[in-house]
Amino acid sequence: MPLALLRRMRTKRPDRGSGLRMPLPVGAGAFSCEVLDPVGQALGGVEVTVTETRGAARTVARATTDPHGLFLATLEPGQYTVLLTGSGLQPKRLTIDIAHGQCEPARRVQMDPSQQLELPPPGTWLFDPPHTAIRFIARHVGMANVHGRFTRFRGGIHIAERMEDSRVEVVIDASSINTGNNTRDAHLRSADFLDVDNFPEIHFASNRFIWRSGPKWTLQGPLTMHGVSRSVSLDTTYLGAVNGGYEQELRCAALATAELHREDYTLNWRNMLARGIAVVGPTVKLELDIQAMYRNHDTPTPPE
Description:
Blueprint: E1 29-36, E2 47-52, E3 59-64, E4 70-75, E5 78-85, E6 92-98, E7 107-110, E8 123-127, E9 133-140, E10 144-150, E11 153-159, E12 167-173, E13 177-178, H1 182-189, E14 201-205, E15 208-213, E16 216-225, E17 228-243, E18 250-261, E19 280-294
Parallel strand pairs: 1-7
Antiparallel strand pairs: 1-4, 2-3, 2-5, 5-6, 8-11, 8-19, 9-10, 9-19, 10-13, 11-12, 12-14, 14-16, 15-16, 16-17, 17-18, 18-19
InterPro entries: CarboxyPept-like_regulatory, Lipid/polyisoprenoid-bd_YceI, TTHA0802/YceI-like_sf
Family: Belongs to the UPF0312 family.
Protein name: YceI family protein
C-alpha cells in the first residue's frame, strides 16, 4: 500500500500519538511510530521497512522517518515485521498486527547505539605528517573540480578523560598550497586569495566535541584564515586506534570534512566567463584525513 500523508495535530511529545488524525482507505489499517535517538530526541532519517510475515515475506512499505522522527504507512489487515535501521545504530525489529480500521497512537521506539570503536586513551596525540593529508576541492568553471592539498602543517589532539572535553588544534602553512599547477598555486598564494605574505597561517582550534552516533562526532570551533575567524563544524568519523607504524607505537585515525564559503573569509576574487559562469565556485570542501601518534617519552619523532 502507498504511504499516507502524516498530519501532526499536536506537538507535545507525550500526546503525539493520540493526536494523529488521518483518513484510512476502505478495508485498511495503519501503523505509525515515533523514533528516538539513544538520548530520547526525535531521530529523522531512520529507514523503516515493513514486510509481510506470511507467504513470500513481501516488502509492502519502505521510507525514512521525517525530521520529527515520525513514520506512518497504511496497510492491509494482517501481521507484519517492521525493521528500523540507521547509521551508528543497532537495528530494531518489531512484529505488528494490523486490523481493519485500526489507527493506534504512534508507537515510540528508542534506538540503541551500535557497538562503538574503543575510544583512544586520554593524553596528547600528535599528527603524523606522512600519514596525514589536508585536502580541498573547489568548483572550476562550473563543470569540474580542482583538487589540492596543503603539504606543511602541524597539530594534534588532546584526549580528555571525558571525550566531550577533548580538543583538536591544526596550524597550516598557507604557502604550502599545492594543486599541481605552478601558475595557479602562485595565484592562490597572492593577495587575490590567501595573501600568504600577510596571513601566513590557517588555524583551527576546536572548542566542542559532540557525539552524534556510533563513530560519528561533530567538532566545532573557530577557523581563522585570511585574517578572518568563523565558527565551523567538522563532520568527523573516528576510525579506531591500533599499535603499528615506525616502532609499533599507538596511533589513532579520523576523517573530518567541512564546507567553507569563500566570502566568509573575504576571499572575494571572482572572474566570470563570457556566459556568466564563475571561474571559481563560491564554496570549498575541506577534508582532513588524520593519523595521530600517542605522545610519551618513548614516541619516535615522525620523519619530515
